[in-house]
Amino acid sequence: MTAVATQNYPSPAEAEGKKADVASMFDTIAPRYDFLNRVLSMGIDQGWRKRVIARVMEGAPGRVLDVATGTGDLAIAAAQAGAGEVVGVDIAEEMLAVGRRKLPARKLDERVMLCYGDAENLPFDDDSFDAATVAFGVRNFENLDAGLTDMARVLRPGARLVILEFSQPTAFPVKQVYGFYSRHILPRIGGWLSGDSGAYRYLPDSIAVFPHGEAFLARLRAAGYADVSQKRLTFGIASIYEGRAA
Question: Strand, coil or helix: what is 17?
Answer without folding.
Answer: coil
